[in-house]
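Hey,
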Amino acid sequence: MLDEPLASNISEENYPVTAVICHVVRPGREEGYKAWFHSIAADARKFKGHLGVSTIRPQDHAHPEYVVILKFDCYDNLKTWLESDVRREWIERLQPLIEKPEAVQTLTGLETWFTLSQKPMKSPPPRYKMMLMTWLGVFFTLPQLNRLLVPLLSGLPVLLSQLIITGLGVALLTYLIMPRLTQLFRKWLYPIP
């Protein structure tokens, strides 16, 4: 069940949204959970805007946490599903299979760059802050990559060179630059009310 209301500052936007839902399954209840998941997924597919659902199974069977990735075309349609009576009934059936209440996190795109490690995000920072932080990250990353790589890639076709540089830039932004910038600017991105 949702312990907290979904972030309301994104409800008026019309872009794809993803819910990441974590379930810690009780030992010996894995088969029941798999059957439950297939049934609730079938019902979710019937809802307007459903774009897909998948699950990541636990690697460590000593800590059986399943991660469900649920995609909808817009926030309002996701919210309709998450707050529906159909889903509420499925969540009631889930309770004997899990050790603790599910954790639900909604993501719409760029805010995945703005998560603080080991701290669940209740709602993303305002879009203008995400835009400014992304701009800052790109501003420092791409010129450095161009300076270092353009001489090395000068023998390649321009399009291939750009593909390599931008691909490396996105990888650096995702795994190195944005997590560090988010940590550095966390008080500005997530002010304490």
